[in-house]
Automatic annotation (TrEMBL):
Pfam families: HTH_1, LysR_substrate. It comes from the Bacteria. This is LysR family transcriptional regulator. Residues 1-60 form the HTH lysR-type domain. The keyword DNA-binding applies. Belongs to the LysR transcriptional regulatory family. Coiled coil: none annotated.
């Protein structure tokens, strides 16, 4: 009996993603290494598995048959290996996690992950802070945190918490410039837009004008690319900001900021943890998910 080629997992990843480059990113190897592995597999079996052109890559009929036949078996073997090597008493390995670059990721989730790593010192966490909706499967993430779930049947979403978003200013700013009473009135005020650090676009203000939630585009001469900077600028009476209510929790209790246009605030935003829907999750992934869900109240 011939030994199974070691290139089979690479073949399956290329077939799934339809790209040598995407498969390489998911596997953590170079694109030339992926191309070489597929070439070696085709040479060994004397079978063409992919149609190649300068702009596309697709499975041949033989490649489709091989993919359909082998994928369940190879994935089952991989999951079995992970299962028997996972020691639930001493978790180890690497977790690749996608987090929002906003304060949700840095001020809420990051502290919990640091606590998790103290509890499980053999685990390595590779954190990526990104505001974009990222394809977790394609980029090889174990899990992600966000408010916008990629509509992908391969993913499972589990609710973490909800956050209220509101409009705020200081009493000093309002004494000098007046208090806006409508969304339209914001056009006459010094708003503080926040630019995404990854997409470069401004974060819209999620407000409800009576006909449903809409994104108001703030305008102002002071533009920042971090929510904490917007908070500090607001406290310095430099303008009006739209931020998570948790960011002004202490300042609201001390009457240092005033909520504005409360009747126009949108519904609270749901924050989710989402992950691959494969049948077997490594114990380290499932343990982190359970830890986040159980401990999220500590950072709210």
């Amino acid at each position: 009996m011939k030994a199974l080629p070691t290139q089979l997992p690479i073949f399956i990843q290329v077939a799934k993603t339809g790209s040598f480059a995407k498969a390489a990113r998911a596997l953590g190897i170079s694109a030339p290494a992926v191309s070489k592995a597929i070439g070696k597999l085709e040479e060994e079996w004397q079978v063409k598995l992919f149609h190649r052109s300068s702009h596309s890559l697709s499975l041949t009929q033989m490649g489709e048959q091989l993919f359909d036949s082998l994928t369940p078996s190879v994935e089952s073997i991989q999951h079995t290996i992970e299962r028997i090597t996972d020691d639930s008493q001493s978790l180890s390995g690497k977790l690749k996690i996608n987090l929002p670059s906003s304060s949700i990721g840095q001020e809420h989730i990051l502290p919990l992950i640091l606590d998790f790593m103290e509890a499980y010192p053999e685990i390595t966490c590779d954190l990526h802070f990104d505001d974009r909706v990222v394809d977790l499967v394609e980029h090889g993430f174990d899990l992600g945190i966000g408010t916008a779930i990629n509509q992908d049947s391969r993913l499972i979403a589990r609710r973490l918490f909800e956050v209220g978003i509101g409009v705020y200013a200081t009493p000093d700013y309002l004494a000098h410039y007046g208090k806006p009473t409508t969304i339209k009135a914001l056009d006459q005020h010094k708003c503080i837009p926040v630019r995404s650090t990854t997409s470069g676009r401004f974060h819209g203000w999620r407000l409800n004008d009576g006909e449903g939630n809409k994104l108001y585009e703030p305008k102002g001469k002071l533009i920042v690319n971090h929510f904490r900077a917007a908070k500090q600028a607001t406290l310095a009476s430099a303008g009006i900001s739209c931020l998570g209510s948790w960011m002004f929790k202490q300042e609201l209790e001390q009457n240092k900021v005033v909520p504005l246009l409360e009747s126009y605030w949108g519904e609270p935003i749901q924050v989710w943890v989402y992950y691959s829907s494969r049948e077997y999750l490594p114990t380290r992934v499932r343990t982190l998910i359970d830890y986040l869900v159980s401990n999220i109240d500590k950072v709210l």
